[in-house]
Write a structure and sequence with these properties.
It is a single chain. The chain contains seven helices and no strands. By secondary structure, it is an all-alpha fold. The two termini are 27 Å apart. It comes from Gossypium gossypioides (Mexican cotton). InterPro entries: PLAC_motif_containing. Keywords: Membrane, Transmembrane, Transmembrane helix. This is Protein PLANT CADMIUM RESISTANCE 2-like.
Length: 137
């Protein structure tokens, strides 16, 4: 542990741009959640929940911030739960873009979903790749 109390092997987040997050955040979120949940939730179901929460509350980040926390924990990325929620509440599109690109940078084809990615990678369970990290560009 560093003197800050954080493990030595935390990786930084990567940055990038994703038109989908801007034009249709429900699809971007659906794809992210399907990968983060390892296929137990479909892109369509998560996207529909995202739209429903957006229509009811006006703040879909209330739902999507939990997936950022799951993603961060799976890949041992820097940050914390409070920061995850703040990013989604104040800059939903930026947060979704960053998460989407993080998964792409780790070799996932976001357009084909979890199960097709597993098949594409010879049926092996996809372990987090920590050393690739989320580097700023």
């Amino acid at each position: 542990m560093h003197s800050s109390g954080k493990p030595h092997d935390e990786a930084p987040w990567s940055v990038g741009f994703c038109c989908m997050a801007c034009l249709c955040p429900c699809i971007a979120f659906g794809r992210i959640s399907e990968i983060v949940e390892k296929g137990s939730t479909s892109c369509g179901a998560s996207g529909a929940r995202y739209i429903l929460i957006m229509c009811i509350t006006g703040f879909p980040g209330l739902y999507s911030c939990f997936y950022r926390s799951k993603l961060r924990k799976q890949y041992r990325l820097k940050g914390g739960c409070c920061g995850d929620c703040m990013r989604h509440l104040y800059c939903e599109i930026c947060a979704l873009t960053q998460e989407y690109h993080e998964l792409q940078n780790r070799g996932l084809d976001m357009s084909i979903g979890w199960h097709a990615n597993v098949e594409k990678n010879q049926g092996l369970a996809m372990a987090p790749v920590v050393e690739k990290g989320m580097a700023n560009r």
